[in-house]
Specification:
This protein has 228 residues and is an alpha+beta fold. It has four helices and seven strands.
């Protein structure tokens, strides 16, 4: 006859329910700790990114600094001449002039873009006509006045050098002074006077408070580009 022996109640072969609960609690606690650590790491990353975004300046918009609606002297000339020739078919160019006044837009100055004032001689009427092309490209005849003495003028077909070519040269020569003056005024004038020999650009820098003194200037042959 076989004798059946019952295993003790505390045998390791059959763990008590209390031990299972304890193991599950330890695992849960460990997972909870990992979750807390992960949340701290994510929060740290988000804070670091927020600080970087606050310190990093927004990207600079790459937009043109000079509007091409503002014309150079040669770009403005054809319509100005057309207006003058509606009054007098034989209108002749006397001069083209512009001024960059405080506060000067240095990019427009360097590009030779501005509003322009043209003077034309009207031979059959013995008058001098003033035609303005403004910053927006609008053209208008401002006035005509009697001009009894016949001016000796050079034909405009020798005009080769535009303000967009002259003004960068002026800026290279006088730009540092333009930037240091409190109220600089820059004037550019193309002259067709025959006594100059050729069409002639003269660009001058003066101070508003001292307009009689030329602080810096550039003289350029408008046909050959040579300095004079």
């Amino acid at each position: 006859m076989q004798t059946r022996v019952n295993a003790p109640a505390n045998s390791s072969a059959d763990p008590a329910p209390e031990d299972d609960v304890q193991v599950e609690w330890i695992v849960a606690a460990g997972l909870g700790g990992l979750l807390v650590i992960a949340l701290f790491v994510i929060a740290g990353i988000l804070v670091a990114r927020a600080r970087q975004a606050a310190v990093t300046p927004p990207p600079i918009e790459q937009t043109p600094r000079v509007s091409f609606d503002i014309l150079t002297a040669r770009e403005a000339y054809p319509e100005a001449l057309e207006i003058a020739r509606q009054v007098e078919a034989g209108a002749q160019l006397v001069s083209a002039a512009s001024a960059w006044t405080p506060v000067i837009n240095l990019e427009q100055l360097r590009a030779g873009r501005s509003g322009w004032t043209f003077h034309f001689y009207l031979p059959s009427r013995a008058e001098l006509a003033t035609v303005v092309v403004d910053l927006g490209g609008e053209v208008s005849m401002v006035e005509t006045q009697l001009w009894d003495s016949l001016p000796l003028l050079i034909e405009d077909d020798g005009w080769a050098l535009d303000s967009s070519q002259v003004m960068p040269r002026f800026f290279d020569q006088c730009g540092s002074l333009v930037e240091t003056l409190p109220e600089p005024l820059v004037e550019a004038r193309l002259s067709a006077a025959a006594n100059l020999g050729r069409l002639h650009w003269r660009v001058t820098l003066i101070e508003v408070d001292n307009p009689s003194t030329v602080l810096c200037e550039l003289n350029v042959d408008a046909t050959t580009g040579q300095e004079r």
